[in-house]
């Protein structure tokens, strides 16, 4: 087979796979609610989907992992880029402590070292690539998580988070205000979700 023919076949194979396997389309359901504008990549792995609550206008890109056994709530307009993990439990400490006894540990006894808890991501937040959101995390609305951050804990609305572990390094409203000065007609649309009186 010639190099030209092989290259052509590979290109068409990639295009076909993209259309059949990885094409992201609008429309999802969450907790019995139809979400006409929410999109989830087929290349996203979701465990315990029954414990995942989505808002509308959500985008979850390719190669993300969402482990929702402890409950994950993702508000309206949230964007989760790619290669992110949202995990509601961590068992590695327990496994080290119990060794082979981990498998047979009684279900009615507390697991030593076990960490578990929900994740809440407020409306119109952005999760940058290669970020980790851990159990017992609550992000306020309008939060921006910079790429590669490890996030655990409670954070206020409009926080810019960066680092391992993540810390607050700024406020998204500063950038938003500069943009709104350029596009003042958009202020009512921004205020509709960002107003201080609106619940996170």
In spatial order, strands of the major sheet run 1-2-5-8-13-16-19-20
Output the helix-strand order.
Answer: HEEEEEEEEEEHEEEEEEEEEEHH
The strand count comes to 20
Strand content: 25-35%
Q: pLDDT below 50 for ≥5 consecutive residues: which ranges?
A: none
Q: Radius of gyration in whole Å, from Cα?
A: 20 Å
Q: What is the arithmetic mean of pLDDT?
A: 91
Instruction: Tell me the CATH architecture.
Output: 3 Solenoid
**Which secondary-structure class do the elements indicate?**
alpha/beta
Overall number of domains: 1
Task: Write down the CATH topology.
Answer: UDP N-Acetylglucosamine Acyltransferase, domain 1
Characterise this structure:
The protein has 200 residues and is α/β, with parallel strands linked by helices. The protein has one domain (26-194): 3 Solenoid (UDP N-Acetylglucosamine Acyltransferase, domain 1). It has 4 helices and 20 strands. An 8-stranded mixed beta sheet has the order 1-2-5-8-13-16-19-20. It has a 5-stranded parallel beta sheet with strand order 3-6-9-14-17, with no helix packed on it. A hairpin with a 2-residue loop joins strand 1 (26-30) and strand 2. It is globular and about 55 Å long. 24% of the residues are buried. The model has no long low-confidence stretch (mean pLDDT 91).
């Amino acid at each position: 087979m010639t190099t030209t023919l092989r290259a052509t076949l590979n290109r068409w194979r990639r295009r076909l796979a993209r259309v059949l396997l990885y094409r992201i389309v609008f429309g999802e359901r969450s907790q019995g609610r139809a979400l006409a504008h929410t999109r989830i990549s087929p290349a996203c792995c979701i465990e315990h989907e029954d414990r995942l609550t989505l808002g509308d206008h959500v985008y979850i890109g390719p190669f993300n992992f969402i482990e929702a056994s402890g409950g994950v709530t993702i508000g309206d307009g949230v964007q989760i880029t790619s290669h992110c993990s949202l995990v509601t439990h961590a068992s590695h400490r327990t496994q080290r402590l119990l060794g082979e006894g981990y498998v047979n540990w009684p279900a009615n006894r507390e697991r030593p070292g076990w960490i578990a808890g929900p994740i809440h991501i407020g409306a119109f937040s952005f999760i940058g690539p290669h970020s980790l959101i851990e159990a017992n995390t609550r992000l306020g609305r309008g939060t921006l998580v910079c790429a590669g951050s490890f996030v655990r804990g409670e954070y206020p609305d409009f926080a810019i988070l960066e680092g391992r572990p993540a810390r607050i390094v700024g406020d998204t409203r500063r950038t938003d205000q500069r943009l709104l000065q350029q596009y003042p007609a958009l202020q009512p649309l921004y205020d509709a979700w960002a107003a201080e009186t609106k619940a996170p």
